[in-house]
Structures are given as structure tokens and as C-alpha cells.
């Protein structure tokens, strides 16, 4: 569905994407993870055929975006990071008007709007204006609108940012349904649990480059340990405890209020720490997550 080799995007002297290789298979959910400024959005915009590449090879749906941009865009669905709905129009009108942009007949878009409102659980709101809808409803409408042309490839930029847990899980359910129908998904997200739930494969980007690629499980196995032991201390006291635990784990990370021990057996490490007289305020043994991988690969320092 998408094939990129040595893909580059420059803005003047700034190189936002630095030689990226990406291959997205039909029917999979593929994710881009990375901190702000990593090059995710620039890559997505090139795939969406709205930003020309500076260098490298790119094929979308078997076509070159430089030569077949309009034909590719006609077969794509795009969910932008910020909702850009027509607030003065109703839910139904948003879908029908957008469908007409693709040259679909009035009869077709009327029927399609009914189908998509049911899919997005918005049928009861069909004739209400968009402005007073909740954030979750607007996000579902934005996704529904992106499906009006029955796209083969759906691009979603931060699809659940700002939503409450119930709304996020409802959107996840709808994306699972789309994938089961054979729609290929490309997703950027800052939510690690979302990436683990939705993505078959993903890449982690940092500084315009891909620093890791694989399934969520593969990345965790490759870059972290099976479990993480968190030992919490009063501020300033954690450093004194490091010497008593640093040999109990494959890797030890010291944070302002706790020590993280990356180990294959968290409970065993906790017992050994207690036996050595280490007394944290609280402790937690948990499985390693994609967030542990992400922070190890891209760092904990905020990048503006």
C-alpha cells in the first residue's frame, strides 16, 4: 500500500525527514511513534500527497504521488489531528457535502451518510449542528467523514487526542471494525497503549530518522525486559538506595521520585531489595510496555 525508500523532506536548511524506509502492507494497522518534531507529520503529509518529497522514492497505492496525486487522494481517507468540520452544518450535511467533493451522486451520498452515522453512533444527532457536539462525537464524525469515499487507505493523525477513556475505547472499536473490513490504517499517536492496542507493526522516529521497527511485542522484547520494578522514595532519598539495587536488574533508571529496575523477575528483585534493607515508600511490579521502549529510544527530555 505504501513503499518509501530513503525518503527525505527538507524545509529550507532544515531536514525534517532524513532517509526513511517504510513499507505498509495491505490490511494492516501501521503506526508512527515519536516525540514532537520527530518527522511523523511530515512523513504522513508526503504519504497523503499534500506535501512533495524532497528526495527518495515513494509509492502510494502503487503510484507515484508526484505523477498521480489526485488519483491517489481519491482513494485515501484522512483524519487530521484537529477536527475541521463545518460547525454551522448538521452532522448529516457534513457527510453529504464532503461526499460531493469526490463527485459522488446525491443519492449515493444520502445513503452513505446514513450508513456512516450508524457506524459512528451518530444517527440520533443526524440533524443537529456540529458546534454543540462533544469532543468524542466530533472525532467520530471526522472519522466517518473520512470514509465517505470508501478509502482503501486511512491516515489518522493523533485520532484520540483529548478524548476521555470511554470515547477513546469507542473509537478503537470502530477502527478495529474498519481493519476487519480490509481497510489499511496508518496511525500517528502519542498514546503508547493505543499503539499497542491498534498497531500490527510500527516505527519509532526520532530526529527525522527511524530508530526502531517491529510489532509492539517485538519492540518490547528487543529494547526492554519482561518486567519493571518501580521503587518509590521520598524526593531526594532515591539516590542513596541505588547502590543496594543496581546489580539486581539488567538496567536501572533513577527518576526524581523513584528507581526503575528493568528485570525478568520483578518480584524476585523486590525480595532481594528488601533483604538488603532497601525500604521504599511503595513498590510496583508491572510488565514492560511500549512506553518503556519509547522513552529508552527517544529519551525523557522534553523536545520543543
TrEMBL record:
A single GO BP: response to antibiotic
Give the highest taxon in the source lineage.
Bacteria
What PROSITE patterns is this protein classified in?
Answer: ABC_TRANSPORTER_1, ABC_TRANSPORTER_2
Keyword check for Nucleotide-binding: yes
InterPro entries this protein is in?
AAA+_ATPase (IPR003593), ABC_transporter-like_ATP-bd (IPR003439), ABC_transporter-like_CS (IPR017871), ABC_transporter_ATP-binding (IPR050763), P-loop_NTPase (IPR027417)
**What are the UniProt keywords, alphabetically?**
Antibiotic resistance, ATP-binding, Cell membrane, Membrane, Nucleotide-binding, Translocase, Transport
State a GO cellular component annotated for this protein.
Answer: plasma membrane
What topology in the membrane does the UniProt record assign? Peripheral membrane protein
Chief subcellular location: membrane
What region holds the ABC transporter domain?
2-232
Where found in the cell?
Cell membrane
MF term (GO), any:
ATP binding
Give the family, as the similarity comment puts it: Belongs to the ABC transporter superfamily.
Which PANTHER family does the record associate with it?
A: ABC TRANSPORTER ATP-BINDING PROTEIN (PTHR42711), ABC TRANSPORTER ATP-BINDING PROTEIN NATA (PTHR42711:SF5)
Official protein name in the record: ABC transporter
Q: Which organism is it from?
A: Amycolatopsis antarctica
